[in-house]
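DATA SHEET
Item: assembly model
Revision: 1
Owner: S.N.
Input lines:
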Amino acid sequence: MASKDEFSFSYRLRVRWAEVDRQGIVFNGHYLTYFDVGMTEYLRAIGLPYPDGLLEYDGDLFLVKATVEFKSPALYDDELDCHVRIGRIGSSSMQFLFALYRGDDLLVSGENIYVNAHPVTRAPAPVHQAIRDAVSRFERA
Amino acid sequence: MASKDEFSFSYRLRVRWAEVDRQGIVFNGHYLTYFDVGMTEYLRAIGLPYPDGLLEYDGDLFLVKATVEFKSPALYDDELDCHVRIGRIGSSSMQFLFALYRGDDLLVSGENIYVNAHPVTRAPAPVHQAIRDAVSRFERA
Amino acid sequence: MASKDEFSFSYRLRVRWAEVDRQGIVFNGHYLTYFDVGMTEYLRAIGLPYPDGLLEYDGDLFLVKATVEFKSPALYDDELDCHVRIGRIGSSSMQFLFALYRGDDLLVSGENIYVNAHPVTRAPAPVHQAIRDAVSRFERA
Amino acid sequence: MASKDEFSFSYRLRVRWAEVDRQGIVFNGHYLTYFDVGMTEYLRAIGLPYPDGLLEYDGDLFLVKATVEFKSPALYDDELDCHVRIGRIGSSSMQFLFALYRGDDLLVSGENIYVNAHPVTRAPAPVHQAIRDAVSRFERA
C-alpha cells in the first residue's frame, strides 16, 4: 500500500524541534497536522484553495474518520514528502490518502474520510460537480 | 461501540483555547494528544506510570496504528471525559481503546495499537507478565 | 520577583508527553499555552469566564507583549502550579503576571500585556468598570 | 525597531490551519515555534546546523528569556518571512533577534536570550571562538 507511484502530488516539509518528543521522534498527533498541511497544498494545487475554494460551492470539509499507520518514525530536521491524493468521492464524502516519505522510505501512511457539509449548518451536502471536475482534471493530467 | 459502560477508567480534561481552530472546534490532531494523556493516566492508575513503570520491564510503547472516529466536535472550554481501557494484549502488542465524552455525548472514539519494544534497540519484545497481571487486576476490580 | 505570596490564585496542570522535546524539557512555546490556560482559569475564578464574560462588556483581549523568563525547565509529568494575577489595568490594557512553580521551585515567570479591544472592529476600548470591579473584589478578598 | 534592513537572513513559512485559533489569528505561543524554526535555519545557513554544529564544540543553547511584541496578527495561510540575526554574543550567552513580516508589514518581533551550556551538565560555558567566527563571517558577508 501507499507506493509513491500512486500519487501525482507531494509537498515537502521539515520536522520542527517542537514536534519531536523525548523518544527523539515526532509525536504521533503531529502526523495529522502534516496530513492537514498536505491536504491544504493539494487543494491549492487543484485550484480550490482551502477553505475559500470550497466555500464558493457552499461546502466545507469535516473529518469523520482518520486511520494512520506508523511504519518508521520521522526524526528532528528530517525533510519529508507528504504525498496526497483523493481516493474516492462519495455523494457527500471525500477520502484523502496520505503517504509520508523520507527519501524512498515510507514512514507513515494515512486515510482521512471527510464529510462535505454546509459551512454554517454543518449538514452533509453533496460534493459539488465543480469539485469533482477539478479533482479528475488534476489526477488525469 | 464505545459505550461508557465498557470502561472502568476515565480522565477529565478541559479544552484549551490553543487547541481550537477557526471552525471553533478542536483541531483533529489534538485528539491524539488527549488519548495520549488518557493512556498516561490509565497506566498511572494501574500502577505502571509511563514510561518508568514499563522501562522497569525493559519495555516501551511505540504506536503502530491509530484509528479515530469523529462523531461530534469538542468545543473551547468543554470538560471532556477520556475513557480508556486496554482491549487486547498480543504477544508483543497492546490495543488501547478510547472514548471521549462530553457529559453523556460520545464525541470521538479511537483505537491505538502499540508495539512493545526494547527502549534502546526498539526491537519488538514480549509484553512482560507483570504488565499483563497489572492490567487484568485493574480491569477485574 | 514572582514570589508565591504575591498571588492569590493558582491553577494546577500536568506536563504532557507531547509538550516535552528531545532535550527532555518542555518546549518554550508551550509555556505561553500554560499561561493562557492560567489566565482562562483566573478569569473564570473572578466571575468573567473567557471570552463570554468580557464580550458582555464589548471587550476582548489581544496580546501585545509577552515576556518570559526561564529559570529552570519543567519536565515530563511534572505537576505545575500556574500562579496568576492582574498587575495593572490601564485605560485600555491589562497586565497579567504569571509564575509557574513545581512545588516550591519557581521555574518560569512571565508578564503578558493585553489590549482590551472591541471583539469585531478590534479597536482598543476602555476596560469596563465592571471588569475593574471584579478584579479588585477578587484580589482584595 | 526591527527594520528588515537590519537582517541579512530570513526564512519563509506558511501559517498552518492548526496554528490559528477561534479569533482567526495565530495563537500566541506558536510565534515562539516560528522563531525556533527561524533560529534553526539561521544556524544551518551559517554552517552550524542545530544541534550537531554546536555539540561539536560541547555547547547547546537553553532559552533564558523571551520577549515578543505583537503588532498585527498573522492569519491562516499567510506566507511569512521570519528574519533572524544574532545581536550580541556574551561570554556564555547569545541574543537572537527576530522580525516576522508578511510582505512589508512587520507583524511580530522578538528577542530570545540563550545561555550556552554544556549539553550534559547544562552548566553555562563560554561560547566557542569557532561559533563567534561563523557568526561574524556570515553577518559581514
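QC remark: The two ends of chain D are 22 Å apart (CA to CA).
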